[in-house]
Each structure stands twice: as C-alpha cells, then as structure tokens.
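Ligand: zinc ion. Inputs:
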Amino acid sequence: MAAAKQVVRLAAGLALCAGSAAHAAPRPDFDRGADAGAVLEQLRAVEPPSVGGTESASGGGDVWITIGKSDLVGPAGAGTALGAPAASSKRAALYKVPADRLAELSHLMHEKFGRCGGFFAYETREEAEADLFAPPASKGGPYTLDQEAVVRPAAAAVKEGELRSTIETLAAFETRYYQSDTGVQASAWIQERWRALSATLPRASVAAVPHGWKQSSVVLTIPGSEKPDEIVVLGGHLDSISGWGFLRGRSPGADDNASGIAVLTEAIRVLAQAGFAPKRTVQFMGYSAEEVGLRGSKEIASRYAQQGKKVVGVIQFDMTNFKGSGDGIWLLEDNVDPELTAFLGKLVDAYAGVPWATTRCGYGCSDHASWTRSGFPASAAFESTFDGMNHSIHSERDTLANAGGNAAHSVPFARLAAAFAAELAKSAGTPSAHGR
Ligand SMILES: [Zn+2]
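Predicted complex:
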C-alpha cells in the first residue's frame, strides 16, 4: 500500500499551507498510528490557498454525509474525528460536516482506504436518512445476449489512439475540480465532443445537467424507438481532485477518471459508426463532483427514482487504464446488482477479449453506488484488483505516462461499454430473444 508516499504528500500539503512554520511540523505517519484527528485539526487551522481563481470549496453551510461503518472501526477508522453519528443503520452512519470540509474528507478516505469516493454527501438530513434506511435495490434482469451483429463490428472498431487522445485532452486541463473554472471548461469540452460524435445517432441530444456548484454533469440521450421509457445508463465521473493543500492545484486525473470518460466517448464513436439504433433509450453520463461525496450522480439517480423512471441497468467506468493486476477487467461485487454483474461477465467473455474476475472496493466508492442507493440495478468495471489499483490517483502524478503512456488497458473496457449499450437496449432491425 502506498501509505508512505501519501504521508510525504500530506506533509508537503502542510508545508504548502502553513508556509515556513510547517517545515517544523512533525511528519504524521499513519502506519505507526498517527492520529488522523490531530492531523485534521492541524489542517483545519490552516486556511487553504485559492489557486486558479476558484473560491472556497463548495460554499458555506453544513452537509450531511453517510460513511460505511466498516470504515469507522479498526486502526484505519480510528480518530477520523467525526464525533458521534446523528443516526446510523446496519451498514452506515450519518454525520453533519461543514460543506467546505468535503475535500478534506475525500482526502482522508483516499489516504486511509485508497478509495476514490468513499462517502455520500447530502444537502438535507431527510435525504440522507432516507438513503440510510433505503430498502435494498430491486433486482435487475433477466438479461439476454443476442446482439452480435451490432456489437462485433463496434467492438472491432475500438482504437487505442482514440482513447489515448481523449485522456490526453482531459488530463491537460489544470484541474477538473468540481468548483474550478477549468473543471467547467472540461465539462463543456465533453459536451461538445459527445455532441459531435453522436450527430449521426437517431434523435440523439446532449445536455449539461447543472447542480448547486460550478461544474455541470453531462448527459447524452439516444431515445429508444420501441421502449423509450426504459433506460440503459453508462457513466463515469468527469471531475478530478488533488491531495489536500493542492486541492485546486494540478490534478490531471488521467486514470481517475479521464480514462472512464474516454471509454464512454469511444463507445459512442464506434456505436454511431456502426449505425446503432436502440429499441430502449440509452444515456451516457459524465458525473460532476464524485470526488466530494458522489454528489452529481446521487442527485441524478435520486431524481430518477422520484420521477419513477425505469432503469434496466447501469454500468460505471471509474479508473480503467492502470494495469496494476495484469490484463483483464475486474467487476465490482459490492454495492452492485449480482444478476447484472454476472451478465457483465458474459459480455466480457463474448466481446472484450480479456479475462475477468471480481473485486470489492467498499462503501460509496464510486457513482454506481448512487444508483444502487436509489434502488436501480447497477454494476461497475475496474482496472485491477482493489489492492492492485493506481496509487497515484488524487495527485499530480496521475498522468498517462504513469499508466505506461498509452491507453491499451482501456481498450477492452470500451468494447464492454459498446456491448453493454447494445445488449441491454437491443437494436432496431435485429431480432431479440424474449422481446427484452
Ligand atoms: Zn474516481
């Protein structure tokens, strides 16, 4: 585990924030039981520098967060200084925290659990409690595999160079932090790119989904010709973040999560090229503010639940380009729908050309958890086992060069994305079994 490196960066963050005084600051060493609470108090005492013209993290006021109980117990959870929970269920506990401390919490979740997300953030206590005691998600499926005629040419058309160029373009933004100006520009670039690539897809449209903060999420909709009310969702987060103290500084996020957006973008390109005409509605989503509590995806998923929308399946791509455990695709087995995840295995076997296995990543670790939390069947495909994941995320070192300088590891993920869209939405003009 990359703890040592993390500690160095944390000490550096302190140095940056506290000017000369910090050089005297003892180097906290979590592995030897450094008290995270004390470090947090130290961080609270230091006013973060504002970089790149962005104002405070996410505005004033408090938000409510839920965090996995398993994360709060044991050495890693000790001293997370959250105090007594306001409420708790079997799986999670509810806390009120100042909104502008979310990034700090995100940093702590990454430092101590190596997680990308790791908690949910809510505007209101009611919303948080509704989720805390939400009934388990409805089961997805049955799913059938019979769209070879559409998927094979699309999968064969996936290009490493296309994936690499999207990653390079997104990683070139100074940061894609959800409250940064360059984060807003990155969202706008994705909107334009998806609009251009989907121009030949029947009645396709791209919309910016605004939230209560600067950066919008992006949604491409390809309406279904026969079952437009049934929706297939493919998503990944478009924001990035860098460790505390560099919060709004350089965060290329090449793997976390320019790679996931590149996978979605390449799937759109090859499906459009293959003349994809879905029977069900297909939506590609780039979520904002995943790094600070899954906020963008949670807003969208809970709105779909409130509107009674029928979502037949969701897939999440968050970190697909770091070959930490060799060739392959790792399917998450926690916070997902087991039937849909089993179907992903069949799609990988049929179309992706690499082996697959399962791994776990914990509470609220990425946007698929927002859909599960809102009662929809969700799944997620990951770059490696959890332990083998890219430990340079959330820092200026999360570059394409750090992942070998190419996007080869993401190619099978783009094939899986194209297969997921076609097999769950079915395509007009191709016979589909059981009418599903
Ligand atoms: Zn991520």
